[in-house]
Amino acid sequence: MTWLGAVPAWCWWLIALVLVAGGQQYRLVMAQGETIQAQADLSDYRLQVAERDRRAAGQARTEEQRRQAVADKEGENARQQLELAQGRAAAAESAAGGLRGEIARLRAGHRATCDTIAAQQRQAGASAAGVLGGLLEDADRLAGVFAQAFERSRIAGLACEAVVDGMKASR
Question: How far apart, in whole angstroms, are the C-alpha atoms of residue 129 and residue 81?
């Protein structure tokens, strides 16, 4: 008999059971280590994602503030230009008022001189001077209105272009 035969069969079963249990215990310890490592990796990944999100939000805030600053600056420039244009329009209206007064004075002078001319000539001259004076007044008034509207729309268009150009500058 060999020494293997001297060991009872139940011992062999016990040895096999201890080996299997030990193997299972080793597998369990390794799985727990892998789980701990996976949790640590997941935690690191979450920290990285949170940091990227924080940086992206900061960059978005910075870009939005830059764009708002560009829009505010251009809006202020447009407001200043509009105020300047309104001042020029008021000065032009004042000058136009002086011209209208001069036209009225010339009409009155024309009427006074026409009293000495024959009635037929007076009617023709007065009506021609009156029509021309009225047309000149209307044309002057409309020119002022159109110039003012054009200046407002030009300033608004330039402000819009400047805002868009400022927004594109960062791209």
Answer: 39
Q: Which residues contact 141 (CB under 8 A, 6 or more apart)?
A: 96
Identity at 75, one-letter amino acid code:
G
Structure tokens at 137: 């007044």
Describe the chain by its helix, strand, coil percentages, rounded to 5: 95, 0, 5
CA distance 115 to 134: 21
In this structure, are residues 107 and 129 in contact, taking their beta carbons and an 8 Å threshold? yes
Distance CA 103, CA 96 (A): 10
Q: What is the C-alpha separation between 89 and 68, in angstroms, rounded?
A: 31
| pLDDT tens sequence across 24-55 | 999 999 999 999 999 999 999 999 999 999 99
User: What is the pTM (predicted TM-score) of this model?
Assistant: 0.52
